[in-house]
Design goal:
The chain is an alpha/beta fold and about 475 residues long. It is built from 14 helices and 23 strands. It folds into 2 domains: about 1-245 and about 445-465, Aldehyde Dehydrogenase, Chain A, domain 1, CATH 3.40.605.10; about 245-425, Aldehyde Dehydrogenase, Chain A, domain 2 (3-Layer(aba) Sandwich), CATH 3.40.309.10. α3 (about 80-90) crosses α4 (about 95-120). Bound molecules: 1,4-dihydronicotinamide adenine dinucleotide and the ligand O=C(O)CCC(=O)N[C@@H](CCC(=O)O)C(=O)O. 1,4-dihydronicotinamide adenine dinucleotide (NAI) binds near residues 143, 169 and 203. Pathway: Amino-acid degradation; L-arginine degradation via AST pathway; L-glutamate and succinate from L-arginine: step 4/5.
Length: about 475
């Protein structure tokens, strides 16, 4: 089913770089194998993209939109197979993988609307605003949403008239291949979308290629910061970074306890905590109300069903992306415990396999813990005395992606909203499950002020402002000191 190949200039072909494999994290089944792209493969893809891009940018927007819609139709027809592949390669439950495919399909019409609103052409008398594509852009994807998140860069980039070099996560090559096959079968002209499989060496070769006009990155803050340093001083190319978070959730005493519990679980443990938007820090009030809420939360967390993606009944959470990722999470938890954290419900390895972890809740109140994103099902509890203290704790992070506020006093929420420094701020709603009809991005170590989703059109195009007349005309009066 999978070719294990790269896709360059409309052709599937063997890579010339290091061997690469991907496995189902639930049972270790081999899902994909092939070779990475080496520097020569990378440069050939850029040359093909450069040639294809100019004709693509010349097309009327309606022509590009028609191709995008053909791709959406292909996704729709293959949706169940694609969801199953996502579920198997990432380990996420099938119900969740189906949601990812739905988001991918939804991205097409959203991007067409966003391009018209944020980019497109406007004229007011002699003043004309147009938008132009950058040229050849690269998209680096993370593993947690191997379809939806790269798709969220690729679709608006192609729509704007760019050509794309796509380097998926080395942990999800099979999903990337299936996605690119859909574009091919939808009739995308050769060279416009090139698939370069590989690890960080392939990514580094893409980022260093002289033909690169822009890089749209979704991944960890560590890699994003590295790319930012590499691009420092280079104003020729655009870099859009969507990175991690250490997202806080402030809970105030409230009436709708069951709903709040449901939303805290979705915030912290959806996708086994492998979403950048997941809540990592839960701030609860000291005292009886906070303690009662905590006991209900611990009980509900302990009953979350963890299992393989196709299990029936369906689990709430699957395994982590790999046994190695699970091991790193357990080590992070051990470090927090060594610093003095209290294990209220420690995350544990489960008998289903080495990548399976139970959801964990540990208390770190009063402890100076590192400001790190732990990308898995581990929630850290911090108790506070009053709202302003909670806000200070919530803001004490170098990240600024998402935050949530649970409470029924709107004035309190507004008070927090004026002080929160994040790109996504929700009130009585989970931090996860962002809307594609809004911008999505963060401040600080979470992004570089190029939010994605609805605002992706902004980094896929650049504006050209013109004052135009069919013929030059003289002003009523010449400027002082000028004669003609
Ligand atoms: N803000 C957002 O929209 C989102 C952010 N994320 C973040 O992504 C992370 C999880 O994804 P991962 O795949 O582990 O991220 P990662 O940073 O390890 O990898 C992301 C991509 O960068 C490539 N890469 C890694 N090192 C590189 C290097 N030195 N040079 C060039 N390319 C390199 C990888 O091969 C991959 O394609 C989490 O931190 C999460 O918070 C995930 C989803 C959404
Ligand atoms: O890109 C969009 O359409 C909106 C952003 C989005 O879907 N975010 C998701 C996943 C991002 C992640 O955490 O990996 C979310 O907020 O749950």
């Amino acid at each position: 089913m999978h070719t294990g190949q790269l896709f360059i200039d409309g052709q599937w072909r063997e890579g010339r770089g290091a061997p690469l494999q991907s496995f189902n994290p639930a049972d270790g089944t081999l899902l994909w194998q092939g070779r990475s792209a080496d520097v020569r493969d990378v440069h050939e893809a850029f040359l093909a993209a450069r040639v294809a891009q100019s004709a693509w940018a010349e097309r009327e927007p309606a022509g590009r939109e028609a191709l995008l819609r053909a791709y959406a139709e292909c996704l729709r027809q293959r949706s169940e197979a694609l969801a199953l592949l996502i579920a198997r390669e990432v380990g996420k439950p099938l119900w969740e993988a189906r949601g990812e495919v739905t988001s991918m399909i939804g991205k097409i019409e959203l991007s067409i609307r966003a391009q018209a609103e944020r980019a497109g052409t406007r004229q007011d008398g002699a003043q004309v605003l147009r938008h132009r594509p950058h040229g050849v852009v690269a998209v680096f994807g993370p593993y947690n949403f191997p379809g939806h998140l790269p798709n969220g860069h690729i679709v608006p980039a192609l729509l704007a008239g760019n050509a794309v070099i796509f380097k998926p996560s080395e942990q999800t090559p099979a999903v990337a291949e299936a996605m690119v096959a859909c574009w091919q079968d939808a009739g995308l002209p050769p060279g416009l979308l090139n698939l370069l499989q590989g690890e960080r060496d392939t990514g580094a070769a893409i980022a260093a290629d002289g033909e690169l006009d822009g890089l749209f990155f979704t991944g960890s803050s560590r890699t994003g910061a590295l790319l930012h340093r590499q691009f420092a001083g280079d104003t020729r190319r655009i870099l859009a970074l969507e990175m991690g978070g250490n997202n806080p959730l402030i809970v105030r005493p409230l009436q709708a306890v069951d709903a709040a519990l449901h939303d805290v679980l979705l915030s912290a443990f959806l996708s086994s905590g492998q979403r950048c938007s997941c809540a990592r820090r839960l701030l609860l009030p000291e005292g009886d109300w906070g303690e009662a809420f905590l006991q209900r939360l611990l009980a509900a967390t302990a009953t979350l069903r963890v299992g393989a993606c196709e299990d029936q009944p369906q689990p709430f959470m699957g395994p982590l992306i790999s046994p190695r990722a699970a091991q790193q999470l357990l080590e992070a938890q051990d470090q927090l415990l060594a610093l003095g954290a209290r294990a209220l419900l420690p995350m544990q390895r489960l008998p289903q396999g080495a990548a399976f972890l139970s959801p964990g809740l540990i208390e770190v109140s009063g402890i100076d813990v590192p400001d790190e994103e732990h990308f898995g099902p581990l929630l850290q509890l911090i108790r506070y005395r009053e709202l302003d203290q909670a806000i200070a704790i919530a803001n004490a992070t170098r990240y600024g992606l998402a935050a949530g506020f649970f409470g029924e006093d709107e004035a309190e929420y507004r008070h927090y909203a004026r002080r929160a420094r994040v790109g996504v701020l929700n009130w009585n709603r989970p931090t996860t499950g962002a809307s594609g009809a809004l911008p999505f991005g963060g401040t600080g170590a979470s992004g570089n002020h190029h939010p994605s989703a609805w605002y992706a059109a902004d980094y896929c195009n650049y504006p050209v402002a013109s004052q135009e007349a069919p013929q030059a005309s003289l002003p009523a009066q010449l400027p002082p000191g000028m004669q003609l």
